[in-house]
Write a structure and sequence with these properties.
It is a single chain. Helices cover 49% and strands 20% of the residues. It is built from 12 helices and 15 strands. It is an alpha+beta fold and 467 residues long. The strands form 3 sheets. Strands 1, 5, 6, 7, 9, 10 and 13 form a 7-stranded antiparallel sheet that branches. The protein has 2 domains: 168 residues, Chondroitinase Ac, Chain A, domain 3 (Sandwich), CATH 2.60.220; 266 residues, Rhopdopsin 7-helix transmembrane proteins (Up-down Bundle).
Length: 467
């Protein structure tokens, strides 16, 4: 096993060692490729190999007469090295090039080191970026671009850096300028529409809760819906304030606005989880569970738990200005959000938190759909529910449980622009879907209402009790 491991490790590492005199009068040129490794430059070579240009300044600053130049080409896929925890970008050909001259650390060069990475025509929506590995970044190290200038070309990219270390070329997924501006316009308009229908939904729920005498379970459901829609309203309002005020506010004000936006997003996710828990209690724990001040306790969780998360994130200074850039590294928009230095906070509190909620809610959605179909198959509710209403109830539950937010996990990559449009539009229409769903489900109060979720729950309770 040790021999096999040593063989696989050496297979991903190729090194060239040169002894160069301190009195060198010309620059040192070396070629490298992922397959052949580094070698001395052959002027007649016209392949797809990259090039390394070491300036004379490096050798003139060294004290010894002869120094060793070590150039190492690593295949990080085979070695399992140089990987960030939250890395989204792809390393070109899984290749990292390390350069060491002598035994001292070289930085602050006036005449930079130049690495030319050869590649094919890059796909649209990808931005090449010259980076180096910084072991002090985060807990396990990460890529940085400070001190490096990127000159992108059609079939080669030149990296000019003022120091020596391990370098690579990252392929970052990025939006073009027109797509990014169109998405911001769609998101802004969608937020306005969503806020309007959120107000309509809250007013409708309050009206039917006061106008008609529903059983306690339905009244709790309506209270849950009001809180969920209220969190959506606050989230859209925070986004509009964020996009309108960010870039023109003080640093502390931007941090507060970023924390407010994060709080509203976590509230939305938490109330989505509570909707799923309520459906679980109704359709799985069907014999009924009485909890004193149940809705008040849910409000304490739905509005209180995000306060703890945002408070901890604020203490470590996670909030500030966040810039959205296009493929030309031009800043398209400024947002007050979690800063780039604390992206791990975003991945844990947003992506990880919602991922768990989404998995749980999809299981609950499957159980609810299965029970609804089984009751219809037995003829218990057949004749009272129309097919279009069944489909609408299912679609409403799908939105209510936050399924549209799952599209955010597909927005990373070079082909994510269509998914971004779909994600923006569907989340903008989420308030409309919930409003229509509640109107059809709870109003008017006729015999057809007996085919709603409340009737299915009552019938399921009766059947289980008799069994």
């Amino acid at each position: 096993l040790l021999q096999e491991g040593r063989h696989s490790w050496l297979a991903g590492l190729k090194t060239l060692l040169l002894n160069v005199s301190r009195a060198v009068t010309r620059d040192v040129l070396i070629t490298f490729s992922p397959t052949a490794g580094p070698s001395r430059l052959n002027t007649t070579e016209k392949g797809k190999a990259g090039k390394i240009h070491l300036p004379r300044e490096i050798f003139q600053s060294l004290s010894s007469q002869t120094v060793s130049v070590v150039v190492t080409v690593l295949n990080i896929q085979q070695l399992g090295m140089f990987k960030e925890v939250t890395q989204r970008a792809q390393v070109l050909d899984d290749t990292v090039v390390g350069i060491v001259v002598g035994k001292s650390r070289i930085s602050g060069l006036q005449d930079p080191v130049q690495l030319t990475f050869a590649h094919r025509q890059l796909p649209q929506g990808v931005t090449p970026q010259c980076v180096f590995w910084d072991p002090s970044k985060g807990q396990a190290g990460g890529w940085r671009s400070s001190g490096c200038v990127t000159q992108a070309g059609d079939k080669r990219t030149v990296c000019s850096c003022d120091h020596l270390t391990f370098f690579t070329l990252l392929l970052n997924p990025a939006l073009d300028n027109s797509t990014a501006k169109a998405l911001m316009a769609v998101a802004t308009a969608g937020c306005g529409v969503a806020m309007a229908f959120s107000i309509f939904t809250i007013a409708f729920c309050i009206f039917v809760r006061c106008r008609y005498r529903f059983e306690e379970t339905v009244r709790i459901n309506l209270g849950l819906h009001v809180n969920l829609v209220g969190s959506l309203f606050l989230l859209n309002l925070a986004f509009l304030l964020n996009s309108g005020l960010s870039g023109r506010t003080h640093t502390r004000t931007c941090g507060v606005l970023g924390g407010l936006t994060h709080y509203c997003l976590l509230c939305c996710f938490t109330w989505t989880a509570l909707e799923g828990c309520q459906l679980y209690l109704l359709f799985v724990k069907v014999l009924g569970i009485y909890i004193h001040h149940y809705l008040a306790k849910l409000c304490l969780i739905g509005w209180g738990f995000p306060v703890l998360v945002v408070g901890v994130a604020g203490v470590i200074g996670s909030y500030g200005e966040y810039s959205i850039q296009n493929t030309d590294h031009q800043v398209i928009a400024h947002l007050c959000w979690i800063t780039s230095k604390h992206l791990l906070v975003h991945y844990i509190t947003n992506c990880g938190y919602f991922g768990l909620i989404f998995l749980f809610n999809m299981v609950v959605f499957g159980v609810v759909t299965q029970k609804s179909c089984s009751l219809q198959g037995t003829g218990a509710v057949q004749g009272h529910r129309k097919p279009w209403k069944v489909a609408l109830v299912a679609a409403g539950l799908f939105c209510l449980l936050g399924a549209t937010w799952a599209l955010a996990f597909l927005t990373y990559g070079i082909s994510s622009a269509p998914v971004l449009y779909l994600f923006t539009i569907l989340n903008s229409l989420q308030g409309i879907f919930i409003f229509i769903w509640l109107v059809v489900l709870y109003y008017p109060k006729t015999k057809e209402t007996t085919g709603s979720l409340s009737y299915i729950t009552r019938h399921d309770k009766t059947t289980t009790a008799s069994q």
